[in-house]
Each structure stands twice: as C-alpha cells, then as structure tokens.
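Researcher: Here's the sequence for the chain we discussed earlier.
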Amino acid sequence: MKDKALRALIVDDDFYCRSYLQEILHPYAYCDIAVNGDEAIFAFRRAWSENKPYDLICLDLVMPEIDGHKALREIRAIEKEMGLAKDKQVKIIITTVLDNSKETHDAFFLGGATSFLVKPIDENMLLAELRKLGIIEASPQTT
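Model: Thanks. This is the structure I predict for it:
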C-alpha cells in the first residue's frame, strides 16, 4: 500500500496516548483525533458521509462522555444499518489500560472489536498487529 493511503481515527482522552499513537501511525495513515466516544461516533459518521471511511480506529475504553464500549457498539450498529459485510467493517483496535478478561470479553464478543492491545502501547506490537490484520504491508522505509 502507498504511504498515507489509509485513514485512521485515534480515540483517547489522554493527550500523551493520542500523540504517541499519531506518531506511530503517521507514516502509514492520515490520522484524525477524537477525545471521547461521542466525538468518535460523530467522526465515523462524517467520514462515511464524505465517502472517506476509516480503515482503522484505535479506541480507548475508559473515557468521559461516551466510553469506548458504547462507542464501539454504536459504530458497529451504524455499519449494520449500512448493510456492511463483516469484511468491509472498520478494523477497531481497543487500546486500554484495562487488562482483564471481562473487558476483553465485552470488547470482542459484545462490542465487535477486531483486536485488543494493553497500554502502554508498544510501537512494534502495534505495527505487528496492523500487519496481521492486513492494514499495512511493510514499514514505510522498506520498498
């Protein structure tokens, strides 16, 4: 894939986490930012209305206003309303400090998350996950 051919939405209420994820993803994707689930849902809808849907959403679970669980369920409901096949849905990676089986279970089985990474996010682990999901092919330095 070409550099910056992808579109990503980073959703986190912590400035440092948003900045760090943006730094990692910047060579691969255009990145938009949201600070809570309400903004994430708005950005997701807007991207579709502009015919520029996101390829990836990095979504924190614990946020003010609307949390990540509710935002995840709402995004998946919007996709269902649009009639999107599962393979056409946005890849959503949960990025959270919560490392327990209930949170993992809820995000995957109730919310429809694609993947789950525990903070602090490791750059190599995130990039490996993106490759595994087919979001990126190789590092931008490699031709």
